[in-house]
Amino acid sequence: MTLAYNYIAIEGNIGAGKTTLSTRLAAQFSARLILEQFEDNSFLPKFYEDPERYAFPLELSFLADRYQQLKTQLATQDMFHPVTIADYFIHKSLIFARKTLNDAEFTLYSRLFAIIDNVLPKPDLLVYLYLHVDRLQQNIRSRGRSYEQNIQDEYLLKIQEGYFDYIRQQQGMRILLIDTNKLDFVANPGDYDRLVSLITKEYPVGIHRIEG
């Protein structure tokens, strides 16, 4: 079994399992792994305590960190790891910013994002892991990050809607939208194999919705 794509991005809401799946896939297929370094962001705990005050510096810092990481990693070929798997796509910056910033802030942010977006390659396959909010909250509680424990359902729903709005607007990308509500790819090897079988298939450009 091989991967048909050179660059795969795994996306999803907070607690969807992006990092876990990306890490397992990279290990299985000897791929280069790019993980978002969000835990180093000093604005994140502050944002969850006071969103209105810290949304703009948080989103700017995330954008700068993601851009620098992807630009550095994707600019070079790795002869030993020709496939790259990332647990995020740079466009998540725009999706989150649209839901957290006011109109004036988002207008400025969008101008900065447009400059950055033209420099980075888009993934050959974008995988979105869909989970209901109650399942997201279970995962958030289980992993135990203190600053995430007060995330509200409303915020998760806003982010989910932001992703769906973005996906609906894409015409030139290959997007795999997988409903994982009936899957547990961490504890159940069969569920993980199911995801692998879906991700290793070849798809035409467009949106492909799949019940897990």
Total beta-strand segments: 6
Low-confidence stretches are: none
Mean pLDDT: 93
- Indicate the radius of gyration in whole angstroms: 17 Å
Number of helices: 8
Helix content: 40-55%
Biggest pleated sheet: 6 strands, parallel
Describe this structure in words.
The protein is α/β, with parallel strands linked by helices and 212 residues long. The chain has a single domain, classed as Rossmann fold (3-Layer(aba) Sandwich), CATH 3.40.50.300. The protein has eight helices and six strands, in the order βαβααβααβααβαβ. Helix 8 (189-199) links the parallel strand 5 (174-179) and strand 6. Helix 3 (51-74) packs antiparallel against helix 4 (92-100), helix 3 packs parallel to helix 5 (103-117) and helix 4 (92-100) runs antiparallel to helix 5. It is globular and about 50 Å long. The two termini are 20 Å apart. The mean pLDDT is 93.
Describe this structure in a few short sentences.
With 212 residues, this protein is α/β, with parallel strands linked by helices. Helix content is 50%, strand content 14%.
Write the layout of secondary structure elements.
Layout lengths: L6 E6 L5 H12 L2 E3 L8 H7 L1 H24 L9 E3 L5 H9 L2 H15 L7 E6 L2 H11 L9 H17 L4 E6 L9 H11 L6 E6 L1
Parallel strand pairs: 1-3, 1-4, 2-3, 4-5, 5-6
Helix pairs in contact: 2-3, 3-4, 3-5, 4-5, 4-7
Structure keywords:
alpha/beta; Rossmann fold; globular; 212 residues; 6 strands; 8 helices; six-stranded parallel sheet
